Amino acid sequence: MNIVCLDLEGVLVPEIWIAFSEASGIPELRRTTRDEPDYDKLMKWRINLLKERGMKLKDVQNTIATIDPLPGALEFMEELRSMTQVLILSDTFTEFAMPLMKKLRWPTIFCNSLVISEDGFIDDFKMRIQNSKLSTVRALQSIGFETIAAGDSYNDLDMILNSKAGFLFRSTEKIKADYPQLPAFEEYSELLEAIRKLY
C-alpha cells in the first residue's frame, strides 16, 4: 500500500518566512531551508532576529492569515486524495499551519510546535522527532506502507531519497543539479501524472 508524503511550503503554499519578510520589511527573513540545510541553526537565527525586531507570534500569524495556497494546489490535493492517502510532512509549526490547512480542506499534517513566552514572543521550538521527515517515512515503511515523496528543499531530500519513488517539485537549480537522478517537476499536472503511474 502506497502513501504520498508531501512537503508544505514551496509545494502547496508559499514560503511563510518569505511572506513575513515582505510584510514586516525584514529582508533577512527571506532565508529558508532552500538556502540553509541546517534547520536548527536557521530557526534559532530566526527566533533571535524576531526578538531583536520586537516581533511576536501574533505578528507572524497575522501575515499567515493572508496567505493562500499556491494556484492549483487545492485542486492537485483533491485529485491526489481521491486516489491515495496523503500526508503532509513539514518542518513548520502547528501555530503557523492551521490556517493553511483550513484553506487546503484539512489534509493530515505532521509538524512541530513553538514555545511561546507569556508576553507572546517565540522563545524556542520543539521538533516532533529528530530528522522528522526521514523518521516518519521509515516509521510508515515499518508498518507496511511504501512511501512516495515530493518536496523542494534540502530538508526534504532524506524522505525523497529513502522512498519507493521521490520527486523534486519547484526546487532550486542547485538542488536539481546536485541530485540529477531525481525527477524534477514544475507543474502539478506533471507531479500528479508521475504519481499516478505508480498505482
Which tags fit this structure?
2 domains; 7 strands; alpha/beta; Rossmann fold; thrh gene product, domain 2; single chain; 9 helices; seven-stranded mixed beta sheet; 199 residues
Describe the structure.
With 199 residues, this protein is α/β, with parallel strands linked by helices. The protein folds into two domains: 2-13 and 70-196, Rossmann fold (3-Layer(aba) Sandwich), CATH 3.40.50.1000; 17-64, thrh gene product, domain 2, CATH 3.90.1470. It contains nine helices and seven strands. It has helices at residues 16-24, 39-52, 57-64, 73-83, 94-103, 132-142, 157-161, 173-178, 188-196; strands at residues 2-6, 85-93, 108-116, 122-126, 146-151, 165-169, 184-185. It has a seven-stranded mixed beta sheet with strand order 4-3-2-1-5-6-7, sandwiched between helices. A hairpin with a 5-residue loop joins strand 3 (108-116) and strand 4 (122-126). Helix 3 (57-64) runs parallel beside helix 5 and helix 4 runs parallel beside helix 9. The protein is globular and about 50 Å long. The termini are close together.
In CATH terms, the superfamily of the largest domain is HAD superfamily/HAD-like
CATH-derived architecture of the largest domain: 3-Layer(aba) Sandwich
Q: Average the pLDDT over all residues and give the rounded result.
A: 94
| Cα-based radius of gyration, to the nearest Å | 17 Å
Secondary-structure map:
Blueprint: E1 2-6, H1 16-24, H2 39-52, H3 57-64, H4 73-83, E2 85-93, H5 94-103, E3 108-116, E4 122-126, H6 132-142, E5 146-151, H7 157-161, E6 165-169, H8 173-178, E7 184-185, H9 188-196
Parallel strand pairs: 1-2, 1-5, 2-3, 5-6, 6-7
Antiparallel strand pairs: 3-4
